[in-house]
Amino acid sequence: MHLLPPEVLLPFFAAATALALAPGPDNLFVLTQSLQHGRAAGWSITLGLCSGLVLHTSAVALGLAAVLQKTPLALNAIQSVGALYLLYLAQSAWRAADQALHSANEANVRLGVLYRHGIFMNATNPKVALFFLAFLPQFADPMRGALSAQMGQLGLVFIAATMLVFGGIALLAGALGPWLARTPRAQRTTHRIAAGVFVALALRLIFTME
């Protein structure tokens, strides 16, 4: 199996990191649980969310890869869908209202329960499923070998980016969480940065289509 080149992996890593940073239920759940139950709780949820990503990666690698291998024109069609979806994410991030932290349950929770909750949240998130379906094939090329192997690599990169971001949230929640909750300007800045990254990636896809 050939490793994907840096010019493919780095833009994909940037996209995965932007998605992980964009305000949403997953990273807010990691944040709130880490604040109330500690870093171990945050890491348990993070590992659960990343386990859910394995399901999305497998679905794309085992199903969509065969279709793309036989119909190269489908790649351009999916690129178009991916670009539109990225623009949708950019609009959502730009228009996102300031999100306040929600109080979590004060009762003690078991780490295994939080891990399973993370799997369920991610595996049933339609936005993650659509992102994987529309975005992983953008960075795959039949000329580099088996598409399923390439998408497997991309899935691992996506998981690594998610673990890095969500793990960082779990580690720093105690220091940053209360400040972010009291600072609407900081929340708006995060939204704007995420929107800009998504727009840039959408334009990249549009101008690289054959």
Features:
210 residues; mainly alpha; 80% helix; 0% strand
Structural write-up:
With 210 residues, this protein is an all-alpha fold. It has one domain. The chain contains 8 helices and no strands. The chain has helices at 6-21, 25-37, 39-70, 73-95, 111-123, 126-135, 147-182, 184-208. Helix 1 (6-21) packs antiparallel against helix 8 (184-208), helix 2 (25-37) crosses helix 7 (147-182) and helix 4 packs antiparallel against helix 8 (184-208). The protein is globular. Mean pLDDT is 76; it is low at 98-107.
In short:
This protein has 210 residues and is mainly alpha-helical.
How large is the share of residues in beta strands? under 5%
- The domain count comes to 1
Main beta sheet strand tally, sense and closure = none
What are the segments in which pLDDT stays under 50 over at least 5 consecutive residues? 98-107
Shape: globular
Chain oligomer state: single chain
Radius of gyration: 18 Å
Class by helix and strand content? mainly alpha
Percent helix, as a range, is over 70%
Order of helices and strands: HHHHHHHH
Mean model confidence by pLDDT? 76
Q: If helices are DSSP runs of H or I spanning 4 or more residues, what is the number of helices?
A: 8
Number of strands: 0
Distance between the termini: 26 Å
